[in-house]
Amino acid sequence: MSASGTAAKPKRISALISDVDGTLVTHDKVLTDRTRQAVQALQARGLGFAIVSARPPEGMRMFVEPLKLASPIAGFNGGAYVKPDLTLIEDRTLDPEVARRTLGLLETQGVDAWLFSEGRWFVRNPNGPKIAREEHTVQFAPTVVPEFGTALDKAHKLVGVSEDYDLLARCEAEAQAMLGAAASAARSQPYYLDVTHPEANKGTAVRRLARLMGVPLEEVAVIGDGRNDIAMFAQCPFSIAMGNASDEVKAKARYVTASNEEDGLAQAIERYLLSAGAESAA
């Protein structure tokens, strides 16, 4: 349904850019048959399809074959753009001093820190929160180190991880105030605070993906469920929030679909992009 409760006929849409966790996959990180078939039907109609996520590019390789991805993939919220074979197109890393200031803030607040640098995931506490879940999600294991050291010099992403959601919300606000325009700091999940290059945010990412795909931004539809997806909603008039999104996120989207446990992405594709009334690139 639309945010107002009624479905309006969409304008011409030439591509769909989708978030991954909470959108493309279920809570258990399953890509369902209905979603896979909907994406393939979208592509058969002549529309482009791309994914953008806070995940590292290596953590999205499992979608390339089942979705027949042909468009670039944006990892780290736009901190790295790769081809479907994971060949790097371009990337953006944090300023080393900004990375160290961020780490200092997380340490001061007692928040576990992860570092993604040069294709590797570094942790200092192998028993820290959410490590097992993240390993299941990205399908590779972290490298345990006593200190991050020089890996901070080429940081694609620092992540603050905590089961205390209120604490992490305060850390988000403090990181934004402390870092200002020097970095992008936003929670991708209530338990993950992602700090990346200032141009590594989903608003910038959707613009860059549109250019890489050769599609006018006004002909791009976007779909997501998280607070960090609001930035791409702001770039595209055709925005869709998942049913599992918070009310804050839903309020920023033009349409709201079903949850990721109900094939909400597939339902959105079927209703808004493949229906007889929808004008596409075909």
From TrEMBL:
Matches recorded under Gene3D superfamilies: 3.30.1240.10, HAD superfamily/HAD-like (3.40.50.1000)
Stretch forming the signal peptide: none
GO molecular function, one term: magnesium ion binding
InterPro entries hit by this protein: Cof, HAD-like_sf, HAD-SF_hydro_IIB, HAD_sf
Annotated GO CC locations: cytosol
Protein's name in the database: Cof subfamily of IIB subfamily of haloacid dehalogenase superfamily/HAD-superfamily hydrolase, subfamily IIB
